[in-house]
């Protein structure tokens, strides 16, 4: 069972997953060793699943950000998934959702031209509704 200190640990690690256990301990009013033990426990319980980085997509050369509601044309979704596997450089997330659409696809592109080519090829497998992110 998580307590208030565990929640503070998670919040601190969300802000900076690279901090030392000593720094984490200071933030949550524990020793570095006690903070480390708590983090290990949270990892073992599956509450902390891993550590990652956040990148600036625009600075990485991918300023076009969009979401696509995906409507499959049949009950067989494998062609859609196979297509996505060949376009992993653009795909950020693919969520199975409820509602009108079957999936919500999040993508980043270096240009509108590459987005257009992606959409032409995507349309061979599924129908979609496109939303471009104006500010994110």
Automatic annotation (TrEMBL):
Residues 2-63 form the HTH asnC-type domain. GO terms for molecular function: sequence-specific DNA binding. The keyword Lipoprotein does not apply. CDD domains: HTH_ARSR. Keywords: DNA-binding, Transcription, Transcription regulation. GO terms for biological process: response to amino acid. Pfam families: AsnC_trans_reg, HTH_24. GO terms for cellular component: cytosol. PANTHER family: HTH-TYPE TRANSCRIPTIONAL REGULATOR LRPB, LEUCINE-RESPONSIVE REGULATORY PROTEIN. This is Lrp/AsnC family transcriptional regulator.
């Amino acid at each position: 069972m998580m307590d208030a200190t565990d929640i503070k640990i998670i919040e601190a690690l969300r802000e900076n997953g690279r901090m030392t256990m000593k720094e984490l301990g200071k933030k949550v009013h524990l020793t570095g060793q006690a903070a480390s033990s708590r983090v290990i426990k949270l990892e073992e319980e599956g509450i902390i699943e891993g550590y990652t980085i956040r990148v600036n997509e625009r600075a990485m050369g991918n300023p076009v950000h969009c979401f696509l509601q995906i409507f499959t044309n049949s009950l067989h979704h494998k062609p859609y998934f196979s297509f996505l596997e060949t376009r992993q450089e653009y795909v950020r997330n693919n969520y199975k959702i409820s509602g009108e659409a079957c999936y919500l696809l999040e993508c980043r592109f270096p240009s509108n031209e590459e987005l257009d080519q992606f959409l032409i090829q995507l349309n061979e497998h599924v129908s979609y509704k496109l939303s471009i992110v104006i500010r994110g």
